[in-house]
Amino acid sequence: MSNKIITIGREFGSGGREIGLKLALALGIECYDSRLIEMASEDGKVDIERLREVEEKKANSLLYSVYSDYTTIPNGYGLPMNDVLFNLQSKVIMELAKKESCIIIGRCADYVLKDMNDVLNVFIYADNSFKNKRIMDKYDVSEREAASMMKKQDKQRSYYYNFYTDNRWGRKESYDLTLNSSRLGIDKCVSILKDYYER
Amino acid sequence: MSNKIITIGREFGSGGREIGLKLALALGIECYDSRLIEMASEDGKVDIERLREVEEKKANSLLYSVYSDYTTIPNGYGLPMNDVLFNLQSKVIMELAKKESCIIIGRCADYVLKDMNDVLNVFIYADNSFKNKRIMDKYDVSEREAASMMKKQDKQRSYYYNFYTDNRWGRKESYDLTLNSSRLGIDKCVSILKDYYER
């Protein structure tokens, strides 16, 4: 039987990561998110701090052509660090998907795995007030700061996704199903995905 | 225990109605779609043919102010027929939701029932090629005719929904969850909703 993969795209503050983690626990499989960067770093023998700087950010071609933040690793020579990270992470994601059933958060995993069967591509979104409150609680920031973080993060995720894929970030057409976590609640989102997975 | 309602918005050709009917069968509850117009006709004592002409179409205020297709029923005097239908249908939908658990297709039911608990608002969408093929098969029309029907129907549904509600038709933010029927398949959509309902 082939592995079953669930990829989760998510708005900042929507609880997409929490849903992924809870789902993984409920299903007894792994959930990969920022860990992927460590795996990419090990796999590509690239300094993790250099990768972290560009996580889920698209390459800025102007900056990268003027300045010299190009990687010097053998298989990435001449590429902006963002592209190196994208390529390394994509390789890790493909290897994981071949090896085991799992959940992958962000990192254009839906697009990376587009030619595989048994991949469910989910997007989690929520009302602004719900996301705002979650961000305020989690990062201990004011309402205004939370709103600003939300805007910035979603912009970055959107640029990154739209740059590296043929799809549009957050548009329902890019996914198999989209769940409104503020209306359904985090646990209901988990149970919908759990039921789907177990069928 | 309160009734559980599922409302289904859908793109033309996406199979939203089929999903509603199959789900109703699986759950042993009723699915209301074009039947609502008959119920509205009986309830409001308005000729059903006059209602059918304006089904899921928004009022054209210019036409209705120039021409005389106003209803003359006591409680709808001076209203365009579209508004009469919307009001009658909304009343029927609210009565149904109070009376029984059920599925309601289209007719802004999500908005009509926005103040009720236990209402799941779903939107079904699909890739164009999938919708096109379904329309060609169902209505025995050419690919071109199918594409034109799809465009026209979705435009009408969208105008109708955007006119009578505060939300935007087809935008994921207007719904609790959205399902891509071409990627998931009709039966998978049914099972996701069935599992959700039965929890």
Compact overview of the structure:
Two copies of one chain form a homodimer. Chain A is an alpha/beta fold. The first copy, chain A, contains ten helices and five strands; from the N terminus they run βαβααααβαβααβαα.
Question: Top keywords for this entry?
Answer:
five-stranded parallel beta sheet; 199 residues; 10 helices; 54% helix; homodimer; globular; alpha/beta
Oligomer: homodimer
How many whole angstroms does the radius of gyration of chain A measure? 17 Å
Q: What is the H/E order of chain A?
A: EHEHHHHEHEHHEHH
Q: How far is the first residue's CA from the last residue's CA of chain A?
A: 14 Å
Question: Into which percentage range does the β-strand content of chain A fall?
Answer: 5-15%
Output the strand order for the largest sheet of chain A: 2-3-1-4-5
For the largest interface, the chains and their residue counts are: A-B, 20 and 20 residues
- Total DSSP helices of chain A: 10
The total strand number of chain A stands at: 5
Can you tell me the overall shape of chain A? globular
Main beta sheet of chain A: 5 strands, parallel
Outline the secondary-structure elements:
The structure is a homodimer of 199-residue chains.
Chain A: E1 5-10, H1 16-27, E2 30-32, H2 35-44, H3 48-52, H4 61-66, H5 81-99, E3 102-105, H6 109-112, E4 119-125, H7 128-139, H8 143-164, E5 177-180, H9 181-184, H10 186-198
Structural commentary:
The structure is a homodimer of 199-residue chains. The first copy, chain A, has ten helices and five strands. With 199 residues, chain A is of the alpha/beta class. In chain A, strands 2-3-1-4-5 form a five-stranded parallel β-sheet, sandwiched between helices. In chain A, helix 2 crosses helix 5 and helix 7 (128-139) packs across helix 8 (143-164). The two termini of chain A are 14 Å apart. The model of chain A is unreliable at 62-74 (pLDDT under 50). Chain A binds chain B through residues 121, 123, 125, 127, 172-173, 175-180, 183-184, 188, 191-192, 195-196, 199, and chain B through 121, 123, 125, 127, 172-173, 175-180, 183-184, 188, 191-192, 195-196, 199. Strand 5 of chain A pairs antiparallel with strand 5 (177-180) of chain B.
